[in-house]
Structures are given as structure tokens and as C-alpha cells.
Design brief:
single chain, mainly alpha
């Protein structure tokens, strides 16, 4: 009897996560994408000329921090239980 009930409960919803989880996943993906966009560029057209812009604060500190924050959101989105009452 218990096995039949478990099968019925597992077939109710085809998705593993709820809307709250997917919202946090999208926020995390947006942070990660923004971090990679901010990290891009900084090269020089002429290989004999050094461009110090590659060591800017945006590329060295801000972009990796945004990527780590995005990964934090992704981990939280996986671990959060939307059915838990506060």
C-alpha cells in the first residue's frame, strides 16, 4: 500500500523544482553571465603594444565576485525547499 502511494505522489508533478527554485536559478545565471561579460575584452589590436586595461578593477575583482555570487545563488536554488513552512 505504501509503495502505491509513493508512486502516485511522485507522478503528480513532472518537475523536480518549484517556481521559487527556478527563480533563484535564473538570478544566479544572470549574475554568472554578467560576470563573464564584464570579464571579456581588454586585448590589444597590436600585439607589440601592452594594454594595461586587462588589469582593471572590473576584470580582476568585480567580475569574479559576480560569478561567485551567481554560483552561490545556484547552490541556494538547488538546496531550498519551497514546501517548507516558515
Amino acid at each position: 500500500m505504501g509503495e502505491k502511494k509513493r508512486k502516485e505522489e511522485s507522478q503528480d508533478n513532472g518537475f523536480i523544482f518549484e517556481k521559487k527554485n527556478y527563480t533563484f536559478m535564473l538570478i544566479g545565471a544572470a549574475f554568472i553571465a554578467l560576470g563573464f561579460i564584464l570579464m571579456a575584452g581588454g586585448g590589444s589590436d597590436d600585439p607589440t603594444i601592452f594594454n594595461p586595461e586587462i588589469y582593471s578593477w572590473r576584470r580582476i575583482r568585480l567580475a569574479p565576485a559576480l560569478i561567485l555570487i551567481g554560483f552561490g545563488f545556484e547552490v541556494y536554488a538547488i538546496l531550498v525547499n519551497p514546501h517548507k513552512e516558515d
